[in-house]
Amino acid sequence: MSRPLKDTALILEDFKNYLGLERGLSANTSENYAVDVTHLITFAEAHSLSLADITESDLHQLLASLRDMGIQPRSQARLISGIRSFFKFLRIEGYIETDPTALIEFPYLGRTLPDVLSVEEIDAMIAAIDYDKNEALRNETIIETLYGSGVRVSELTGLRISRLYLEEGYMRIEGKGNKQRLVPLSPRAISLLKEYLEQRGRLSIKPGNEDILFLNRRGAAMTRVMIFYVVRDLAAAAGINKTVSPHTLRHSFATHLLEGGANLRAIQEMLGHESIATTEIYVHLDRSRLRSELLEHHPHYRKDPDPET
């Protein structure tokens, strides 16, 4: 025997408490799920349905109406997730006996992969750098570091000089969740970083930015937007007709390594997809193995850092 449903506003509040306290979801996610459920409630009221009476057929009708309104599959999928969680909550609380979402399928989302640059296109971006400008060396170092290590743009802007180990060929990256990992540097990146550090030392650095690696012309830390414009403008200057961003270089890094036969586990570690706690970096990470993967498979690691020698 099902419990009688309370006022929908009270049920929604109970639902959000359930998501936060029992499911451990963030306040933002809980609120989004509650918004998704309001679409369900509006649909039920428009068809004179009680929430306890909603069937699988009714839900298919709701989804069909969303498609007719031009709601994208990804948004449909999120709404289904919210409604599924809601009906699970109703069943746990004894408001319903059967879950009408059990056989509801998510819409096919497909996979939209970002554009990948060829090695020639990346070299063309570097060749497009105008060395009459003061920031030319910095910008080349940024491109080489992004492509040569696969770091996220947020990781690049937060990179500190104290976390560079140029003699050893590594840098320490602070990634998502403040987790840290060691990432190998290419010989070309090491050469450029040393040259850039000398040039950087001549800047008038704003207080608080002394340890930040990449600075703008005023001596302050570069932002993610600044890096985005550097990458975008160089791609345009090179005549590349693709949507290019810092993430494109990260994706190209991983794709070229994989195509070259690099070990997938090594790529995942370098990208930081499986985060490693700070103390575990020095104990468990096989640094020589990661570096050998890059030296063997990454196109820029096989290049002479000094083309004139």
Give structural notes:
It is a single chain. It contains 13 helices and three strands, in the order H-H-H-H-H-H-H-E-E-E-H-H-H-H-H-H. Helix 2 crosses helix 4, helix 6 (136-149) packs antiparallel against helix 8 (187-200) and helix 6 packs across helix 10 (246-259). The protein has a three-stranded antiparallel β-sheet. The chain is elongated, with a radius of gyration of 26 Å. It starts with 7 loop residues before the first helix and ends in a 12-residue tail after the last helix. It is mostly helical and 309 residues long. Strand 2 (170-174) and strand 3 (180-184) form a beta hairpin.
Short description:
The protein has 309 residues and is mainly α. Helices cover 53% and strands 4% of the residues.
